[in-house]
Amino acid sequence: MTTKSVLPATWENVPEVFQQRLGEKAGRQRAMSADGHLLLVLHRPPKKNEPHRQARLLWRKPDGTWQASDGASGPAALGRHLAEFGEVLERYDRQEDNAQSVADLFGILEGVSPLSRSIRNLHATLQDAREKVPDDRDLINFRDRAYELERTADLLVGDVRNALEFATAKKAEEQAAHTHQMAVAAHRLNLLAAFFFPIATLSAVFGSGLAHPLERLLPPPLAFFAVLLAGLTLGIGLLLFLLGMSSQPTNSRPR
């Protein structure tokens, strides 16, 4: 029975131990060495909400030549692999600068968090490879570039999380100020109701049908409607005043 392997079929003279240590899937990022050969099991830059990682294998032969599973060759194949991570980081950094809402920041965090973890594992893998092949200067340079990418990713994750925390705190502060304004408006309304409640109650119990000049100037129905219109106008004016007081902006701390 033939065992399926993630190693390309075009690779010849690959140490058998590599075949034995690899299954049908690449698994985690790691470095393996045997008989002067070095095999790097790496992951491509992860995409947001991607459940599985796409592997990229790089094989270094004892003579220092490289081959990649996607057909590239030479040390530049590993350089291009690192450059892909750098391009994705730059894209997320631009998105963070242009973010306008909490949803935008949360979307960036969803994408950059797995990217940061993948870069951290990439750096650890290249450090292990550098220890397995200590005389390869290219591996040292690639290891250092991976460290720079890891540092950049950590800073970006920190900036996005700080921006999210600030936006959440600012929203909570605005909500608290709005709640306070509504409480003040409700208190003023209660004061007005308490002031006019006795008059309204006494008028309802004993009546308030006193003669006044308005009844002599206007027929009885018009005088009633004139008083009703005046009361509604004053009520609308009072309502607009209270709404204006409750909608005044509050001072917030600058970002």
Side-by-side strand order of the widest sheet: 1-2-3-4
* Helix percent band: 55-70%
Q: Judging from the principal axes of the Cα atoms, what is the shape?
A: rod-shaped
Intertermini distance: 64 Å
Radius of gyration: 37 Å
Oligomer: single chain
SS summary, helix count: 6
What amount of the residues lies in strands?
5-15%
Number of strand elements: 4
Query: Uncertain regions: pLDDT < 50 for 5+ in a row?
Result: none
- Specify the structural class: alpha+beta
* Largest sheet entry: 4 strands, antiparallel
What is the typical, i.e. mean, pLDDT? Answer: 82
Summarize this structure as a short list of keywords or feature phrases.
255 residues; alpha+beta; four-stranded antiparallel β-sheet; 4 strands; 64% helix; rod-shaped
Question: Could you explain the architecture of this structure?
Answer:
The chain has six helices and four strands, in the order H-E-E-E-E-H-H-H-H-H. By secondary structure, it is α+β, with helices and mostly antiparallel strands. A four-stranded antiparallel sheet has the order 1-2-3-4, covered by helices on one side. Helix 3 (102-132) packs antiparallel against helix 4 (137-206). It is rod-shaped, with a radius of gyration of 37 Å. The model has no long low-confidence stretch (mean pLDDT 82).
Compact summary:
The chain has helices spanning 16-21, 76-98, 102-132, 137-206, 213-217, 220-246, and strands at 30-34, 37-43, 55-60, 66-68.
Q: What's the arrangement of secondary structure elements?
A:
Blueprint: H1 16-21, E1 30-34, E2 37-43, E3 55-60, E4 66-68, H2 76-98, H3 102-132, H4 137-206, H5 213-217, H6 220-246
Antiparallel strand pairs: 1-2, 2-3, 3-4
Helix pairs in contact: 2-3, 2-4, 3-4, 4-6
